[in-house]
Structure formats: structure tokens, C-alpha cells
Amino acid sequence: QVQLVESGGGLVQAGGSLRLSCAASGIIFSLNTMGWYRQAPGKQRELVADITRFGIPNYGDSVKGRFTISRDNAKNTVYLQMNSLKPEDTAVYYCNAQHWRFPQNYWGQGTQVTVSS
Predict the structure, then answer these.
(1) Bridge partner residues of 5 (DSSP)
(2) Are residues 2 and 25 in contact, defined by beta-carbon separation less than 8 angstroms?
(3) Inter-residue contact 57 to 51 (CB < 8 Å)
(4) pLDDT tens-digit profile of 16-30?
(5) pLDDT tens across 24-67, in order?
(6) How far apart are CA 31 and CA 98, in angstroms?
(7) Per residue, what are the HEC states of 44-94?
């Protein structure tokens, strides 16, 4: 049974920071690209950042220079450090796992991030 469990969301003032964590189980973590996506009310889900099994990160344009994605394969955990948060970062943030070869794509339940102005 695959589980992706996000934590670390909450309410923060603009300019503040949060660190999201996603603990994975039921997958071979090291063989997956791990990603963070977000969805704001009335908007489509969008990529925030992902990181390949080799540790190569990729960021959405709106978060470049402010967010950092990292992974710890020993702990089966991916992190998203979010700095200089803006009200437009407010969304539900979802963890995602995609196997590098096979069509396996899993989602977490999401964690709410709210940035007040």
C-alpha cells in the first residue's frame, strides 16, 4: 500500500517561511521522481518543484529563487523549503511520486498553506 504523507503546512505571514515534508512508504523511493504540486481555489494544479532520483531539481517559474526542494533517500522523505512566501503561494500542496520507468504515479492527501498579507 502506497502512502505519501505530507506535513508542515500552516498559516504564515507574507515574507515568512515554511518547510513541508512528505514521508513515503510502499514505493522504492530512490527510483521515483518526487514532486510538490499546488492547487489554489478555482485554479488548476501546478508544478511547484520536483527532484529526480539523481537529485536534480526543477522549479516552477513562480517559485524560483524562493523555494528549495530536497530529498533524503535514507528517510524516504522529500522536503520543500519555502522562503519569502507571498499571498499568491496560498494553496493546498500535494506530494507526488512518479517511477522513473513504469507508469506509476501517486499523490498525497495535501497540506494547506495559507500566506496572509
Answers:
(1) 23
(2) yes
(3) yes
(4) 999 999 999 999 999
(5) 999 999 999 999 999 999 999 999 999 999 999 999 999 999 99
(6) 8
(7) CCEEEEEECCCCCEEECHHHCCCEEEEEECCCCEEEEEECCCCHHHCEEEE
